[in-house]
Specification:
This protein is α/β, with parallel strands linked by helices. Helix content is 28%, strand content 17%. It contains 4 helices and 5 strands, in the order αββαβαβαβ. Strands 2-1-3-4-5 form a 5-stranded mixed sheet, with helices on both faces. Helix 4 links the parallel strand 4 and strand 5. The longest helix is centred in the N-terminal third of the chain and has 13 residues. The chain is globular. It starts with 8 loop residues before the first helix and ends in a 12-residue tail after the last strand. The mean pLDDT is 95.
Length: 159
């Protein structure tokens, strides 16, 4: 008889998203993303961070101050990184698992890439205009939104 306590696809892919977020060097917000095909094949992963070639130690990570002294004009979000990191495969009808609901800029990239479902862990900024814009674009583009429901399972690595 097979095991009955294996991870569901949602647990597995959201777990990869959360695990990827742990690669982020952002001191305040760590976000991860995992893109999967219609037949549950992993196409790409990403996390929020500075662009390739930009020394993390030389870049600003603050949230306050003059615009160019903050992380905001520089950090690439997890969703965009996952889209850009994929091999040369189509993302048409794919799903993206994200630890934080996508901002309006990432929503554009998700829609343009052909992803048709967004599964998100948390919508921390749900009352902001950026998230409202994301929701509007997703609705108009026919992208399905689904909040992930944790199973309550604790995962540990006993190797």
């Amino acid at each position: 008889m097979k095991r009955s306590d294996y991870l569901s696809w949602d647990e597995y892919f959201m777990g990869l998203s959360l695990f990827s977020a742990m690669r982020s060097k952002d001191p305040n917000t760590q976000v991860g993303a995992c893109i999967v095909s219609e037949d549950n094949k992993i196409l790409s992963v990403g996390y929020n961070g500075m662009p390739i070639g930009c020394d993390d130690d030389a870049m600003p990570w603050g949230r306050e101050g003059a615009f160019l002294e903050t992380k905001y004009p520089f950090v690439a979000h997890a969703e965009l990184n996952a889209i850009l990191n994929r091999p040369t495969v189509s993302l048409k009808n794919a799903r993206i698992y994200v630890s934080l609901f996508p901002c309006n800029e990432c929503a554009k990239a998700i829609i343009q890439s052909g992803i048709k479902e967004v599964v998100y862990w948390h919508n921390k900024y749900k009352d902001t205009d950026g998230v409202k814009a994301s929701e509007m674009m997703f609705r108009l583009a026919g992208v399905t939104l689904r909040q992930y429901t944790p199973s309550g399972r604790e995962v540990s690595f006993d190797i």
